Amino acid sequence: MTSTQMRAAVLTAYGSPLQVGSLSRPAAAEGQVLVRIKASAVNPLDLKIAKGQAAHAQHSPPAILGIDVAGIVESVGTGVADLKPGDEVYGMTGGVGGLQGSLAEFVAADASLLAPKPKNVGMRVAAALPLIFITAWEGLVDRAQVRAGQKVLVHGGAGGVGHIVVQLARALDAEVFATGSRKDKAYIVQLGATFIDYRETSVDDYVATCTAGRGFDVIYDTVGGAVLDASFNAVARFGHVVSALGWGTHALAPLSFRAASYSGVFTLLPMLTGEGREHHRQILREATKLVEAGKIVPRLDPRHFSLETVDQAHAAIESGTAGGKIVVDTGE
């Protein structure tokens, strides 16, 4: 393979295994940087895209998947002033909307979607963070404007987005509660949240127990469906419900009668539309500070995957056996 080529895992048709092959290496255009990719995180959305089940992500074969990336700047295009060759960076830069993803050795990415990676963690940890941290921040900070002392309920507190929401809310000095199954209890408590067993505790019961019947100031739903409906019945008057999965049909009366607010989070929007990309970089700069301060620690599955075994990585998520974020090692 020449220096003008790179290896990549390519989705050639919806529902087909990814094919590893040699492609032309991209070049950094104006406003872009060429990144030598070291790690790529796998998100559940990648599986939906691979099956053709994610119309909102608009990524048609042949395509390179992979939303989250961590790597080293190889070269910079014109107009890029704050990054230089050799810088270690991370971000969510592609894998949707026709933008090249991170299951490759190189990517030419919009510089405004990248930030300096935390110095105290490796590439694998950095790659695990962008989508889940940005999703957490947009909901808690941008939409709900969480304040110290507020009672925050996180649905799915041990999940990919959920465990970051819990840690971010704690870092913002909120009092945090999180739902999960019994196997999640120890981890949720370790994160500093009060555990709620959603299978054995009714909404009325945990609202009474945790808030003396008042309701939670902020609820972050990462599950959707009936869980979002339950959130409308568990929020306090003038409170705020946020959901990263608010795509269903819901009755808003319980929310309205509490004079509460609802916000949806659609983290892909800046990549799909070009609007708000600089804000994503600013969010990642905040992530870097919190990671370096030890306040955000992403949970990683200990297994290692390569470009050749990406389908095994996808299968681990599909089967529900992932013990944290799955990360693919894309470079030496």
Mean pLDDT: 96
Enumerate the spans where pLDDT stays under 50 for 5 or more consecutive residues: none
Order of helices and strands: EEEHEEEEHHEHEHEHEHEHEHHHE
- Structural class category: alpha/beta
Distance between the termini: 16 Å
Strand content: 25-35%
Number of strand segments: 14
Number of helices: 11
- C-alpha-based Rg, rounded: 20 Å
Q: Strand count, sense and closure of the main sheet? A: 6 strands, antiparallel
Helix content: 25-40%
Q: Give the overall form.
A: globular
Describe the structure.
This protein is of the alpha/beta class and 332 residues long. It contains 11 helices and 14 strands. Strands 3, 4, 5, 6, 7 and 14 form a 6-stranded antiparallel beta sheet that branches. The protein is globular, with a radius of gyration of 20 Å. The two termini are 16 Å apart.
Characteristic key phrases:
alpha/beta; 25% strand; 14 strands; 29% helix; six-stranded antiparallel sheet; 332 residues; six-stranded parallel sheet
Give a short overview.
The protein is α/β, with parallel strands linked by helices. It has helices at residues 44-51, 123-128, 130-143, 162-171, 185-190, 203-211, 226-234, 253-257, 269-273, 277-292, 310-318, and strands at 5-10, 19-24, 32-42, 68-76, 88-92, 106-110, 114-116, 151-155, 175-180, 194-197, 216-221, 235-243, 261-264, 326-329.
